[in-house]
Amino acid sequence: MLRLIALLPLLLLTACASAPDRLADRECAVTTAVLSPILGAASESGGSAELTRRTGLWPEAGSDSWAYVRQMGFSPTWRSGATDQALRSAYWRAYRPLQRDVGLSRAEREMRAWEAAYRDVGDDRLYADEALWTAFFSANQSRQATPCAQPLAEQYGAERVRASGPRAANAVRIEPSRPVFSATGDRALIAARTVYPELNPGDGPRVTGTVWLLNPRTDGRWRVISARRTDLE
């Protein structure tokens, strides 16, 4: 008994030390799951990729863009191509008459058109709970080191850069947020601002913001179950 009592401080210290390590592993796994396809596509296309050294949040937490994402939910990755096409067709049918309503903003027209499409075709969207959103905004109030930035950059030949620095003309730049996890550990939320080089001279770079919802696999990796992308510029 005395020996067990003597070991208690060591056991508590070990438990406290391992918790941040497990969190770091999960942050790395989630960041890798969402960034690997983007970095891989940039590498395969013959272009280059830039990964910011520190996390960032696009746009500010109180922006209407976040309200749009939260209200509209996420498009599941398992949606069939036929359903996706039907939704897009229904969206455009609903959107065209809304264009004549000058009292609506573009975001309001889009939201009304999508809601009409989901009513017609079927609503298969997924949502993150409010506690997860609260944790997401709290965790991203300040910049943190991008999880797994070094191994990701080495694997895909990406440059690690400052978010405020100039972007190479032919490079895809990715600025991820910090990933967060639900209290039960069955969901993760992460976002990224991505700048793509212009396709045609004069078009200018394309800037998108994407939010991903993920869940864990049995092997310790995480898989994307849904996403929502917004054109920022």
Structural summary, described in words:
With 233 residues, the chain is an alpha+beta fold. Helix content is 45%, strand content 21%. It has six helices and eight strands. Strands 1, 2, 3, 4, 5, 6, 7 and 8 form an eight-stranded mixed β-sheet that branches. Helix 3 crosses helix 4. The chain is globular. It starts with a helix and ends with a strand. The N terminus is likely disordered.
Secondary structure tally, helices: 6
Order of helices and strands: HEHEHHHHEEEEEE
The outline comes out as globular
Secondary-structure content class: alpha+beta
Indicate the proportion of strand residues.
15-25%
Number of strands: 8
What labels would you give this structure?
eight-stranded mixed sheet; 233 residues; 6 helices; alpha+beta; 21% strand
Q: How are the SSEs placed, and which strands pair?
A:
Layout (H helix, E strand, L loop, with lengths): L1 H43 L3 E5 L11 H9 L2 E2 L4 H18 L7 H16 L8 H10 L9 H8 L2 E3 L9 E6 L3 E2 L6 E9 L9 E11 L5 E10 L2
Compact summary:
The protein is an alpha+beta fold and 233 residues long. The chain has six helices and eight strands. Strands 1, 2, 3, 4, 5, 6, 7 and 8 form an eight-stranded mixed sheet that branches.
